[in-house]
Amino acid sequence: MSLKFFEKYDTKKKKQFNVLVMGGSQGARQINNIVIALMSHEEINKQFRFRVLTGSALYEEVSKKSKKDAELISYSDNMKEHYEWANFVIARSGSGVLSECAAFALPMILIPYPYAKRRSPNGKRKIF
User: Fold this and answer.
1) 59: domain CATH number?
2) In this structure, how many other beta carbons lie within 10 angstroms of the beta carbon of residue 71?
3) Staple 70 to which of 8, 66, 74, 126, CB 3.0 to 4.6 Å?
4) What is the domain count for the chain?
5) Model-level pTM greater than 0.85?
6) Domain boundaries, position 56
7) What is the Cα–Cα distance from 98 to 83, expressed in whole angstroms?
8) CB 74, CB 54: distance < 8 Å
9) What does the DSSP assignment read for 35-82?
10) What is the pLDDT of residues 34-61, one digit of tens each?
């Protein structure tokens, strides 16, 4: 993926592209594991910076698996700071994340919660 694709979103961002990753308040083990694997590749680290909100329940586990320079946060009550930092968001698809990313005009990849009792795969994404 070329950085030129993302330049239109925020030209103030420097050489690296900032990716905010969130699994929700409980975290998302699969999302965290995929991002940890991505961060282990030198070529990816040259182009992308990841900030991972792990969820308090998974912070220790993710800390042990990731590189020392990884930016891991267990919980934050200041999401504005993270959204302003980000060029792109990868997150669980909840109404809060949808509305917040829309407010900050952030492109996103949304991952549905696999164990949701009421699944409506088309409901939220039709709006966005």
Assistant:
1) 3.40.50.2000
2) 15
3) 66
4) 1
5) no
6) 13-127
7) 12
8) yes
9) HHHHHT-HHHHHHEEEEEE--TTTHHHHHHHS-TT-EEES--S-HHHH
10) 888 988 888 888 889 999 999 888 889 8
